[in-house]
Amino acid sequence: ISQGAEVRCCSTEIPHPLHYITAKGNEIIMKILLSRGLQPNVLDKHGETALHVAAREGFVNCCQLLLEYGAVYNHRSPKCPKTPLDFAMENGHTEVVTLLSMVGKYFKELKKKKFKKLETNMKFFCAVMNCCGNDGMSLMGRAVSLGLKDFAERLMKLRLQMAPSS
Predict the structure, then answer these.
(1) CA 155 to centroid of chain Cα atoms
(2) Which of 16, 47, 58, 155 could form a disulfide with 80 if both were Cys (CB 3.0 to 4.6 A apart)?
(3) ANK repeat ranges (predicted)?
(4) What is the pTM (predicted TM-score) of this model?
(5) How far apart are CA 4 and CA 153, in angstroms?
(6) Does residue 33 lie in a domain region?
Protein backbone atom coordinates (compact mmCIF):
# COMPACT_ATOMS: atom_id res chain seq x y z
CA ILE A 1 0.00 0.00 0.00
CA SER A 2 2.84 2.38 0.83
CA GLN A 3 4.14 1.74 -2.71
CA GLY A 4 0.85 2.81 -4.27
CA ALA A 5 -1.15 -0.42 -4.51
CA GLU A 6 -4.81 0.09 -5.42
CA VAL A 7 -6.84 -0.69 -2.29
CA ARG A 8 -10.20 -0.65 -4.05
CA CYS A 9 -9.46 -3.72 -6.13
CA CYS A 10 -10.67 -7.23 -5.36
CA SER A 11 -10.24 -10.82 -6.50
CA THR A 12 -12.53 -13.73 -7.20
CA GLU A 13 -11.55 -15.24 -3.85
CA ILE A 14 -12.06 -12.02 -1.89
CA PRO A 15 -14.54 -9.88 -3.83
CA HIS A 16 -15.04 -7.44 -0.95
CA PRO A 17 -11.79 -6.75 0.94
CA LEU A 18 -13.40 -4.46 3.52
CA HIS A 19 -16.05 -7.05 4.38
CA TYR A 20 -13.31 -9.69 4.70
CA ILE A 21 -11.08 -7.60 6.95
CA THR A 22 -14.08 -6.46 9.01
CA ALA A 23 -15.12 -10.08 9.61
CA LYS A 24 -11.64 -10.63 11.05
CA GLY A 25 -12.01 -7.59 13.32
CA ASN A 26 -8.76 -6.06 12.09
CA GLU A 27 -9.19 -2.36 12.85
CA ILE A 28 -5.67 -1.44 11.76
CA ILE A 29 -6.09 -2.77 8.22
CA MET A 30 -9.64 -1.39 8.07
CA LYS A 31 -8.35 2.08 8.89
CA ILE A 32 -5.67 1.81 6.22
CA LEU A 33 -8.20 0.71 3.59
CA LEU A 34 -10.77 3.34 4.56
CA SER A 35 -8.21 6.14 4.74
CA ARG A 36 -7.02 5.22 1.23
CA GLY A 37 -10.48 5.56 -0.28
CA LEU A 38 -12.22 2.22 0.12
CA GLN A 39 -15.93 2.98 0.34
CA PRO A 40 -17.67 1.79 3.54
CA ASN A 41 -21.09 1.28 1.95
CA VAL A 42 -20.29 -1.25 -0.77
CA LEU A 43 -22.74 -4.17 -0.77
CA ASP A 44 -21.65 -7.79 -0.91
CA LYS A 45 -23.60 -10.55 -2.68
CA HIS A 46 -25.92 -10.76 0.35
CA GLY A 47 -26.78 -7.06 0.16
CA GLU A 48 -24.79 -6.30 3.31
CA THR A 49 -22.35 -3.51 4.06
CA ALA A 50 -19.20 -3.95 6.13
CA LEU A 51 -21.15 -2.37 9.02
CA HIS A 52 -23.60 -5.28 8.87
CA VAL A 53 -20.63 -7.65 9.21
CA ALA A 54 -19.08 -5.74 12.12
CA ALA A 55 -22.43 -5.49 13.93
CA ARG A 56 -23.18 -9.19 13.49
CA GLU A 57 -19.74 -10.09 14.85
CA GLY A 58 -19.98 -7.62 17.74
CA PHE A 59 -16.90 -5.61 16.78
CA VAL A 60 -17.87 -2.25 18.29
CA ASN A 61 -14.56 -0.57 17.40
CA CYS A 62 -14.94 -1.70 13.79
CA CYS A 63 -18.49 -0.34 13.77
CA GLN A 64 -17.27 2.96 15.13
CA LEU A 65 -14.49 3.16 12.55
CA LEU A 66 -16.89 2.45 9.68
CA LEU A 67 -19.27 5.13 10.96
CA GLU A 68 -16.39 7.60 11.21
CA TYR A 69 -15.71 7.00 7.52
CA GLY A 70 -19.31 7.65 6.49
CA ALA A 71 -21.01 4.27 6.77
CA VAL A 72 -24.80 4.32 6.56
CA TYR A 73 -25.90 3.34 10.06
CA ASN A 74 -29.33 1.97 9.07
CA HIS A 75 -28.79 0.46 5.62
CA ARG A 76 -31.31 -2.05 4.27
CA SER A 77 -31.36 -3.61 0.83
CA PRO A 78 -33.75 -5.87 -1.07
CA LYS A 79 -31.39 -8.78 -0.42
CA CYS A 80 -30.83 -7.82 3.23
CA PRO A 81 -33.86 -6.19 4.84
CA LYS A 82 -32.13 -6.11 8.24
CA THR A 83 -30.11 -3.16 9.51
CA PRO A 84 -26.77 -3.50 11.28
CA LEU A 85 -28.66 -2.76 14.52
CA ASP A 86 -30.95 -5.73 13.85
CA PHE A 87 -27.92 -8.03 13.54
CA ALA A 88 -26.34 -6.66 16.73
CA MET A 89 -29.58 -7.14 18.67
CA GLU A 90 -30.09 -10.69 17.36
CA ASN A 91 -26.59 -11.66 18.45
CA GLY A 92 -26.67 -9.92 21.84
CA HIS A 93 -23.86 -7.45 21.13
CA THR A 94 -24.86 -4.77 23.65
CA GLU A 95 -22.00 -2.34 22.95
CA VAL A 96 -22.84 -2.30 19.25
CA VAL A 97 -26.55 -1.98 20.04
CA THR A 98 -25.76 1.01 22.28
CA LEU A 99 -23.64 2.72 19.61
CA LEU A 100 -26.07 2.20 16.73
CA SER A 101 -29.09 3.06 18.89
CA MET A 102 -27.43 6.32 19.93
CA VAL A 103 -26.78 7.22 16.30
CA GLY A 104 -30.36 6.34 15.37
CA LYS A 105 -31.69 8.40 18.26
CA TYR A 106 -29.77 11.47 17.09
CA PHE A 107 -31.08 11.16 13.54
CA LYS A 108 -34.67 10.68 14.77
CA GLU A 109 -34.48 13.61 17.19
CA LEU A 110 -33.02 15.82 14.49
CA LYS A 111 -35.79 14.83 12.08
CA LYS A 112 -38.37 15.85 14.71
CA LYS A 113 -36.37 19.04 15.36
CA LYS A 114 -36.35 18.16 19.06
CA PHE A 115 -32.69 17.56 19.67
CA LYS A 116 -31.99 17.31 23.38
CA LYS A 117 -28.45 16.36 24.28
CA LEU A 118 -25.42 15.79 22.08
CA GLU A 119 -22.87 13.11 22.94
CA THR A 120 -19.71 14.86 24.11
CA ASN A 121 -17.68 11.67 24.44
CA MET A 122 -15.20 12.27 21.63
CA LYS A 123 -14.78 8.51 21.11
CA PHE A 124 -18.36 8.31 19.88
CA PHE A 125 -18.77 11.84 18.58
CA CYS A 126 -16.70 11.34 15.43
CA ALA A 127 -18.76 8.27 14.54
CA VAL A 128 -21.97 10.21 15.10
CA MET A 129 -20.71 13.26 13.23
CA ASN A 130 -19.59 11.46 10.08
CA CYS A 131 -22.01 8.57 9.60
CA CYS A 132 -24.94 8.83 7.21
CA GLY A 133 -28.57 7.87 7.11
CA ASN A 134 -30.20 5.93 4.28
CA ASP A 135 -30.54 9.16 2.32
CA GLY A 136 -26.74 9.56 2.34
CA MET A 137 -26.92 12.68 4.47
CA SER A 138 -24.75 13.14 7.56
CA LEU A 139 -26.05 14.54 10.83
CA MET A 140 -24.50 17.91 9.97
CA GLY A 141 -25.93 17.83 6.46
CA ARG A 142 -29.37 17.07 7.79
CA ALA A 143 -29.14 19.85 10.40
CA VAL A 144 -28.21 22.36 7.70
CA SER A 145 -30.92 21.16 5.30
CA LEU A 146 -33.53 21.47 8.06
CA GLY A 147 -32.35 24.99 8.87
CA LEU A 148 -31.31 24.07 12.41
CA LYS A 149 -28.60 26.69 12.73
CA ASP A 150 -28.12 26.35 16.51
CA PHE A 151 -27.67 22.61 16.30
CA ALA A 152 -25.30 22.87 13.33
CA GLU A 153 -23.23 25.41 15.28
CA ARG A 154 -23.07 23.08 18.30
CA LEU A 155 -21.88 20.26 16.05
CA MET A 156 -19.19 22.47 14.54
CA LYS A 157 -17.97 23.67 17.96
CA LEU A 158 -17.63 20.08 19.13
CA ARG A 159 -15.90 19.09 15.89
CA LEU A 160 -13.38 21.90 16.31
CA GLN A 161 -12.58 20.66 19.83
CA MET A 162 -11.56 17.28 18.48
CA ALA A 163 -7.92 16.40 18.19
CA PRO A 164 -6.57 16.73 14.61
CA SER A 165 -5.64 13.03 14.55
CA SER A 166 -9.27 11.96 15.13
Answers:
(1) 17
(2) 47
(3) 17-45, 46-78
(4) 0.84
(5) 38
(6) yes
